[in-house]
Amino acid sequence: MEPLGATTVFLVICVSSLLFLSAWRKMSGSRKLPPGPIAFPIIGNTLQLSMKNLPQHVEELSAKYGPIFTIYLGSERVVVLYGHEIVKEALIGLGDEFSGRGSMPIFEKISKGRGIVFSNGEQWKQLRRFALTTLRNFGIGKKSIEERIQEETRFLMERLRNTHGRPFDPTLFLNHTVSNVICSIVFGDRFDYEDKKFVTLINLIEESNKLLRSPWTALYVFFPTLMDYIPGPHQWIFQNAQELRRFVLERVKMHKESLDPNYPQDFIDAFLIKMEEEQKNVQSEFNAESLARSTIELFVAGTGMTSITLKYGLLILLKYPEIEEKVHKEIDRVIGQSRSPSMADRSQMPYTDAVVHEIQRFIALVPLGVPRAATRDVHLKQYLIPKGTTIFPSLKSVLYDSREFPNPEQFNPGHFLDENGAFKKSDFFMPFSAGKRICMGEGLAQMEIFLVLTTILQNFTLKPVIDPKGIDITLESGFMSNAPKSYQLCVLPR
């Protein structure tokens, strides 16, 4: 046994040394890579980076290394783009070269490379093209979806009236409202707010969003293989994903039983018809797994991001009642009380439109953007970024650019108004990213935020439960996204 033991130890040392050297060579890489802090083999920059607030640390690193620099999340090489010029040049000017989806271990485990958001190559192109066409066919960007949002806001107004001026947390109210809009497109119908399965699903999404902002998620990004074997809250994300998958598969089964190929009712119907058309194509990307993943992505993305933005918008207005009052006056002047707000009103409501844009700028919901990847070796500035490199396009650095938005740390609707009080567009406004991978739901989200917020303020005055001066609008910042802290408010009928 003695010689065997010595041989085993020797082999372990050799293998470990080879892995160490491989990781070191990968990290030292080409001299043409953008600069960055010194990384260690295996652990990368783990000891130097803030897992709790990486976006803030990225801002500090940019001050030292400039608008383009390299960091290592564990052994994963990441190039960070910081500032409007470099982000625009990469995502728009070199759109094809930066159209890949970057490494996101926690989502890669859930999606297994399927679906629209986390796929790459031909699969991504086909599924995204199909999804965009289908969403347009079912009303995105059209009057029909606007009417659907207006209908759902009427249910919300009823719920708000039933609070009878008592304090409440708006989180679930907003989640339910926004989710039902995407549900009508994906599943063909809305859910009753008391539906137990619907309530459970919304709670799962809310819980998962909170977990994704936790340090556990950051650890998973750094060390995915190790964290797979370690118990902790991050494991609940995978359990929640399985629950969502089971629900979607149930809905798909129901759709198969009622499907009329001549009259598709929703996204699932359209996908099932496409699957049938491509049945003989062995290389088709339209299969049961892609259907499940794409549906889940649309449902989850269409629920979480917009509702978080609306929740923060209400908190901002509680903090600044003078801004709320200006919006009230504009609503009274343009819309009045006899009809529902519509998207046609937006062009006549520059101040309200500016408030809506400023909320989205200020929250910088996904501060580092959803990671991209270089689809080929690409030159950017004086550097060479190798194919497959993960890219973090810092959206917050664009949304908080002081040249475009003076005093960006202050909430100010004037950032989107000219000297005459007219609404002013900005190329720096990219909360949904830019280029080939821009969020598919941008149009829907913009419509929802404007219509829901305007309808609430048409019907109610917001009342804080504490002095506005004491309201905390600082965000809970996680590795991947921002969100407001929990709060309560009262709404009083106008």
From TrEMBL:
It is a peripheral membrane protein. Heme binds at C439. One of its GO terms (biological process) is xenobiotic metabolic process. The keyword Transmembrane helix applies. GO terms for molecular function: arachidonate epoxygenase activity; heme binding; iron ion binding; oxidoreductase activity, acting on paired donors, with incorporation or reduction of molecular oxygen, reduced flavin or flavoprotein as one donor, and incorporation of one atom of oxygen. Pfam families: p450. It is found in: Endoplasmic reticulum membrane; Microsome membrane. The chain crosses the membrane at residues 6-24. Its main location: endoplasmic reticulum. The keyword Zinc does not apply. It comes from the Eukaryota. It catalyses: an organic molecule + reduced [NADPH--hemoprotein reductase] + O2 = an alcohol + oxidized [NADPH--hemoprotein reductase] + H2O + H(+). GO terms for cellular component: endoplasmic reticulum membrane. Its EC number is 1.14.14.1. Keywords: Endoplasmic reticulum, Heme, Iron, Membrane, Metal-binding, Microsome, Monooxygenase, Oxidoreductase, Transmembrane, Transmembrane helix. Gene3D superfamilies: Cytochrome P450. Its cofactor is heme. Belongs to the cytochrome P450 family. Cytochromes P450 are a group of heme-thiolate monooxygenases. In liver microsomes, this enzyme is involved in an NADPH-dependent electron transport pathway. It oxidizes a variety of structurally unrelated compounds, including steroids, fatty acids, and xenobiotics. This is unspecific monooxygenase. The lineage of its organism: Eukaryota, Metazoa, Chordata, Craniata, Vertebrata.
